[in-house]
Design goal:
CATH architecture of the largest domain: Sandwich
Radius of gyration: 28 Å
Number of domains: 2
Helix content: under 10%
Shape: elongated
Strand content: 35-45%
Distance between the termini: 104 Å
Number of helices: 2
CATH topology of the largest domain: Immunoglobulin-like
Structural class: mainly beta
Number of strands: 25
Largest sheet: 7 strands, mixed, barrel
Length: 328
């Protein structure tokens, strides 16, 4: 009979634990297992934008003119479950996303493979080349000069699952979280400075010095649906210079994004300044309380002739499909 004694018992126990340690480590959680490069596959992402806008106008300097695609180079943040968010960049193909900062620590991985669990994903972007921050914005400010300045907030949330092959891309659909207002100006006939008897629109501002618009608001990201909720600021107010473009058929188009929410009757929505023969500024005030919804685009159609400025109606789009026309 072998008498191990105390020391012999300790040696035997240590040897047993060494033999058992691979089994114990194999029972660790996904986060710990994620540290083993051979046991993980990088998650490949692609990004698209849900909804579109009036093809004649955009408030975006970086994104493409339809508002339904990227231009390439924009930065987005992605967060899976409760992990730290990582920054990705839209590729030159205007769809694929690649890590902004090189290194294995800056990529998300599937584990275990192929039976990966699902991830709760959220992503956000300012629609430009700046880092939108490590956490989902809880407040947001729009620019007062939007003529060439990109102002946007895009958000996505969904559950993602392993795509079946290492190279399959997980598609993320972002949605506009601001409201867009477009003013489309047409003339009774093609304008000619030497022969036309009425004035040309020289400029348009959104809001006026006596009736300013909110420039910021607090934001709560959606947990269901595609659009979050907003509370407009009552102290951060100003006048907005919209983006100016020339549409097809000679229409002049002005567009800007606004903080979503309800605007009171009497609020000056835009001011139209005429030039040449009849230099004057005309204010358009909301005739009744009006709600501008996140993700919606509102087009005010204006006709200028030798008698008056005519407002012919408001076309409302949800940046995806037309949802109707509101008569003024």
């Amino acid at each position: 009979m072998i008498n191990w004694g105390r020391r012999g018992h300790d040696v035997l126990l240590a040897a047993f634990l060494v033999l058992l340690s691979p089994t114990l480590s194999g029972c660790s959680g996904d986060d710990e297992a994620d540290e083993t490069p051979s046991a993980r596959i990088p998650i490949h992402f692609s990004a698209n934008i849900g909804g579109g806008e009036d093809d004649d106008a955009t408030s975006r300097a970086t994104m493409d003119g339809t508002g339904t695609a990227w231009a390439g180079g924009e930065h987005v943040r992605i967060q899976l479950d409760d992990k730290a968010s990582l920054q990705y960049t839209v590729g030159t193909d205007k769809s694929s996303l690649s890590q902004t900062t090189a290194g294995a620590a800056n990529v998300y991985y599937w584990y275990p493979v192929p039976a990966s669990h699902d991830y709760a994903m959220k992503a956000w972007s300012f629609g430009n080349t700046t880092d939108p921050g490590t956490t989902v914005p809880s407040s947001f400010s729009i620019a007062t000069d939007q003529n060439g300045t990109n102002t946007e907030l895009l958000y996505a949330h969904q559950t993602i699952s392993y795509g079946g092959t290492p190279t399959s891309k997980t598609a993320i659909t972002f949605y506009h979280q601001l409201a867009q207002v477009i003013v489309k100006v047409t003339y009774k006939e093609p304008y000619n400075a030497t022969s036309t008897s009425w004035s040309k629109v020289a400029s348009i501002t959104y809001g006026s010095s006596s009736s300013k618009l909110p420039l910021s608001g607090t934001y709560v990201a959606p947990t269901t649906g595609n659009y979050g909720s907003w509370t407009k600021s009552t102290t951060d107010m100003g006048v907005i210079t919209p983006k100016t473009t020339t549409a097809t058929a000679g229409a002049e188009v002005y567009s800007a994004v606004l903080i979503p929410g309800s605007y009171a009757a009497g609020q000056v929505l835009f001011a139209i300044t005429l030039s040449d023969n009849k230099s004057s500024t005309f204010l358009y005030a909301l005739p009744s309380a009006t709600t501008f919804n996140a993700g919606s685009s509102y087009t005010y159609n204006v006709t200028v002739d030798d008698v008056k400025i005519r407002f012919t109606g408001i076309t409302v789009n949800n940046w995806a499909t037309a949802s109707g026309t509101i008569n003024l």
